[in-house]
From TrEMBL:
<dbReference type="GO" id="GO:0046872">
    <property type="term" value="F:metal ion binding"/>
</dbReference>
<feature type="domain" description="Nucleoside diphosphate kinase-like">
    <location>
        <begin position="1"/>
        <end position="82"/>
    </location>
</feature>
<dbReference type="Pfam" id="PF00334">
    <property type="entry name" value="NDK"/>
</dbReference>
<dbReference type="InterPro" id="IPR034907">
    <property type="entry name" value="NDK-like_dom"/>
</dbReference>
<protein>
    <submittedName>
        <fullName>Nucleoside diphosphate kinase</fullName>
        <ecNumber>2.7.4.6</ecNumber>
    </submittedName>
</protein>
<dbReference type="InterPro" id="IPR037994">
    <property type="entry name" value="NDPk6"/>
</dbReference>
<keyword id="KW-0418">Kinase</keyword>
<keyword id="KW-0460">Magnesium</keyword>
<comment type="similarity">
    <text>Belongs to the NDK family.</text>
</comment>
<keyword id="KW-0479">Metal-binding</keyword>
<dbReference type="GO" id="GO:0005524">
    <property type="term" value="F:ATP binding"/>
</dbReference>
<keyword id="KW-0067">ATP-binding</keyword>
<dbReference type="InterPro" id="IPR036850">
    <property type="entry name" value="NDK-like_dom_sf"/>
</dbReference>
<keyword id="KW-0808">Transferase</keyword>
<dbReference type="GO" id="GO:0004550">
    <property type="term" value="F:nucleoside diphosphate kinase activity"/>
</dbReference>
<keyword id="KW-0547">Nucleotide-binding</keyword>
Length: 84
């Protein structure tokens, strides 16, 4: 769970609310493929054609946020929506 006391939280909050937010909903069986498309959290390690390699600039500003489960998605959305 994301906690405001973590050292990266303020910077992450700033990045996540700095631009357009797009919600992508997928079925559970598509999560693995979706995560392949977005790539590694660190753009420098992501596959060449992944979203993060193409558009990310750092591990923090990696162009896209994706949750690995429904529960994690609800937690992330509650944080982002609370910031608006």
């Amino acid at each position: 769970m994301m906690r405001a006391c973590r050292p990266f939280f303020d910077r992450l909050k700033e990045i996540m609310t700095s631009g357009l937010v797009v919600q992508v909903l997928c079925f559970a069986r598509l999560v693995r493929r979706h995560r392949e498309l977005i790539g590694s959290t660190r753009p420098c390690y992501a596959d060449a054609c992944s979203i993060r390699r193409r558009f990310g600039t750092s591990a923090e500003a990696n162009a896209i946020h994706s949750s690995d489960s429904t529960a994690a998605a609800y937690r992330s959305l509650s944080v982002v929506l609370a910031l608006r």
